[in-house]
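Supplementary Note 3. Input sequence used for the single-chain structure prediction.
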Amino acid sequence: RLSKTEYAQTLSDLLGASVVEHMPALVGLIASIPDDDTRSGFLNSSWSLSADHVSGYLAAANEIGLQLASQPQLRAQLIPCAKKGTDLSDKCVESFASTFAMRAYRRPLEKSEQQELVRFYRQRKANGSDRALADLVARVFKDAAKLSISQPVSRSTSGRYPGSASQRNAM
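The predicted structure, written as discrete structure tokens, is reproduced below.
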């Protein structure tokens, strides 16, 4: 798992520092995540993930989604095709999924994953387009966290990382 510092830096890298600066509650949520273990001079020497860690990461993901949905200027920085009060077009959601989710997941999306994100957004639109956007952004962060927790990266026998572009190109 990422250390608390690495997590904060990852959010800044994904969202942009100027977006994160406009989310003061996010700083507090990250601060509420339990401190990292320090053993033998190394931070995060334990891969354990407590319920408090999970709760903190989920709260941060939800806050990011809510802030992007409620602040048009932040949304426009992250999703240029999104406009306040209007539904995102399927093309806009697909564009967002193929760029933002790819960066969050640290790998290209499968077509089925991209379609699932569009489907997820469409289902949530019944609660309003802003709420659907908030849920979509939170889902991308939650999915990325699950990938980090459940899929440790190890090299295949070919010496390439599973799911990497070099491995896919070699197939």
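The mean pLDDT is 77. The beta strands are 38-39, 42-43.
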